[in-house]
């Protein structure tokens, strides 16, 4: 399975967390977090656990399951919150 960077983007926007706060929580630079968010690098399991605990979700939620409907929902919500302000 692959790290679900779309879900991470969704959680950040949905919870309105500042990326700087999340990068501090994960003890990584903002550059590394940006690479995770843009699918340039993958976080290790320890960092995924930190994020899962922080967002109160299961670790498995960060693993891509080839669920295109789920991703359409996330992308639609990201679009609405980021660009429409819904």
General description of the model:
There is one protein chain. With 86 residues, the protein is mostly helical. The protein is built from 5 helices and 2 strands. The protein has a single domain (2-84), classed as Orthogonal Bundle (434 Repressor (Amino-terminal Domain)). The protein has helices at 5-15, 19-26, 30-37, 45-55, 68-84; strands at 2-3, 63-64. Strands 1-2 form a two-stranded antiparallel ribbon.
Low-confidence stretches: none
Rg, rounded, reads 12 Å
Principal-axes shape call: globular
**Beta-strand proportion:** under 5%
Question: What is the domain total for the residues?
Answer: 1
CATH fold topology: 434 Repressor (Amino-terminal Domain)
Tags for this model:
single chain, 434 Repressor (Amino-terminal Domain), 5% strand, 86 residues, globular, mainly alpha, two-stranded antiparallel ribbon
Question: Can you lay out the helices and strands and say which pair or pack?
Answer:
Blueprint: E1 2-3, H1 5-15, H2 19-26, H3 30-37, H4 45-55, E2 63-64, H5 68-84
Antiparallel strand pairs: 1-2
Short description:
With 86 residues, the chain is mainly alpha-helical. Helix content is 64%, strand content 5%.
């Amino acid at each position: 399975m692959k790290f679900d960077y779309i879900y991470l983007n969704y959680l950040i926007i949905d919870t309105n967390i500042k990326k700087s706060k999340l990068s501090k929580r994960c003890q990584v630079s903002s550059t590394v977090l940006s690479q995770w968010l843009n699918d340039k690098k993958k976080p290790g399991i320890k960092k995924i656990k930190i994020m899962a605990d922080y967002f109160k979700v299961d670790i498995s939620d960060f693993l891509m399951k080839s669920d295109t409907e789920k991703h359409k929902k996330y992308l639609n919500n990201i679009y609405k919150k980021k660009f429409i302000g819904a």
